[in-house]
From TrEMBL:
One of its GO terms (biological process) is carbohydrate metabolic process. Keywords: Cell wall, Glycosidase, Hydrolase, Secreted. GO terms for molecular function: polygalacturonase activity. InterPro entries: GH28_Enzymes, Glyco_hydro_28, PbH1, Pectin_lyas_fold, Pectin_lyase_fold/virulence. The keyword Repeat does not apply. The keyword Secreted applies. It is found in: Secreted, Cell wall. Belongs to the glycosyl hydrolase 28 family. Gene3D superfamilies: Single-stranded right-handed beta-helix, Pectin lyase-like (2.160.20.10). The lineage of its organism: Eukaryota, Viridiplantae, Streptophyta, Embryophyta, Tracheophyta. It comes from Salix brachista. SUPFAM superfamilies: Pectin lyase-like. It comes from the Eukaryota. Pfam families: Glyco_hydro_28. This is Pectate lyase superfamily protein domain-containing protein.
Length: 373
């Protein structure tokens, strides 16, 4: 196997909202397709165009990633099966063996860019996260298929990060980590950079993962607001919907609506947690507590769900304004099923089965749910 030093893979600086590579201190290996400061970019399939089927080994021959800086009106047209294959097994093995010096490359990353359309493309075997729009706006990702083995490490499907006006729709994702994860920076670096993710729509996504179907976090230090998740189908998944943050994150997670979700064979249906994720270094501020408020889950149905949900806030920053409505998360009879778990949380619920914890029970259409009907 060709060694990474022989490949001479290019390095780039860490993102300012992360302060270091996500996996290792220092820089990052550049993404397979990397763009910075782009406008009006399209990656799509269009028949009878020049074939563009790249693998990482192609890039070994080129000794570089595909790099676009400050371009306007750029289009990548793929024909035939329209596949971009990261051949990530080489990187996964090095990660497992702890031989990597820097953070693995994403398959696609656009930084400080706007007017991005990615459609009708198959992404396979990314070394790390598959599609990562960061500090970007007006992004549409639709009709894509994203595939990686379920045991592939950290192969998130789509991670909008400190970005606004993002639409992710009509896609199938099956990977080794979260299918879609909304992010906005990591601890003190994300707080200082201060750029939230907002105006995110995620709809008509189908997929499976040993981790989360749809996630917010855990890197949310710049804040996440105004997110709509709807018409989601999840199978054989660890956690259906996962909102996750931690002490030291700071930031906020607010005005999140999740509706019309079907899940089957899921370990936990809904989880909102304040104890998830690690820290970039020891300099995080333990008094930087996240604010979680205004989270609505409605019209959610699950079969073979081991635990319907857990909502566990922070003692000094309780999660408030949680609404559960028209939710049925059915487990299988027997010892594998367990009830809701809640702490440091307040809200209300309507038509929820099994009945949630006392902090979220309300016999009338009042409190947190009244604003949504």
């Amino acid at each position: 196997m060709v060694g990474l030093d022989t490949w001479n893979w290019p390095l780039i600086a860490p993102l300012p909202s992360y302060g270091r590579g996500r996996e290792r201190a220092g820089g990052r290996y550049m993404s397979f397709i990397h763009g910075d400061g782009l406008r009006d970019v399209i990656i799509t399939v269009e028949k009878l165009k020049l074939k563009m089927y790249y693998t990482l080994r192609d890039l070994v021959d080129l000794s570089a990633s595909i790099v676009f800086v400050g371009a306007l009106f750029f289009t990548i047209d793929l024909c035939e099966n329209g596949t971009i294959d990261g051949q990530g097994d080489v990187w996964w093995d090095m990660w497992r063996q702890r031989t990597l010096l820097f953070t693995r490359p994403n398959l696609v990353e656009f930084v400080n860019s706007s007017g991005i359309i990615i459609s009708n493309v198959i992404f396979r075997n990314s070394p790390f996260w598959n599609i990562h729009p960061v500090y970007s706006s007006n992004v549409v990702i639709r009709y894509v298929t994203i595939l990686a083995p379920l045991d592939s490490p950290n192969t998130d499907g789509i991670d909008p990060d400190s970005s606004s006006n993002v639409c992710i729709e009509d896609s199938y994702i099956s990977t080794g980590d979260d299918l879609v994860a909304v992010k906005s920076g990591w601890d003190e670096y994300g707080i200082a950079y201060g750029r939230p993710s907002s105006g995110i729509t995620i709809r008509r996504i189908t997929g499976s993962s040993p981790f989360s179907g749809i996630a917010i976090g855990s890197e949310t230090s710049g804040g996440v607001k105004n997110v709509l998740v709807e018409n989601i189908n999840l199978y054989n998944t660890g956690i259906g919907i996962h909102i996750k943050t931690n002490i030291g994150r700071g930031g906020f997670i607010t005005n999140i609506t999740v509706t019309d979700v079907y899940m089957e064979n899921v370990r936990k249906g809904i989880r909102i947690a304040g104890d998830v994720g690690d820290h970039p270094d020891e300099s995080f501020n333990p008094n930087a507590l996240p604010v979680v408020n205004g989270i609505t889950f409605k019209s959610i149905w699950g079969e073979k769900v081991q635990q319907p949900g857990s909502i566990q806030g922070l003692k000094n920053s309780p999660f408030t304004g949680i609404c559960l409505s028209n939710i049925n998360l059915h487990g299988e009879p027997g010892p594998r099923s367990s009830p809701w778990k809640c702490s440091d949380v307040s809200g209300s619920s309507l038509q929820v089965s099994p009945w949630p914890c006392s902090e979220l029970t309300s016999p009338h259409q009042t409190g947190s749910c009244s604003d949504h009907f």
